[in-house]
Amino acid sequence: MKGIATFRAFGWKRNAITLNNIFLDTSQRPAYLLAMIQRWLGFTLQLLVAGLALVFVTLATQLRSDTAFTSASLSTLMSFGDQLSYVVKSYSMLETSIGAVSRLKTFSDKVVSKKLEEEIVAPLREWPVKGSIDINHVSASYDNADVDSARSLSESSNTSGASSKKLAIKNMSLSIAPGEKVAICGSRGSGKSSTILLLRKILDSLPSTAEIITIDSIPLHKFDRQILRQHIIAIPQDPVFLPDGTSFQANLDPYKASTESECRAVLMTVGLWYFVEDRGGLASGMSSDTLSARQKQLFRLARAILQARIRTRERVAEFVEKGPGAINRSILLLDKVSSSVDQDTDRTMQSIIHKKFKEYTIIIVSHQLEMVISFDTVVVMEKGKVVKAGPPKELANKKGGKFRELWLVGNKR
Question: What are the residue boundaries of the ABC transporter domain, all occurrences included (predicted)?
Answer without folding.
Answer: 154-408
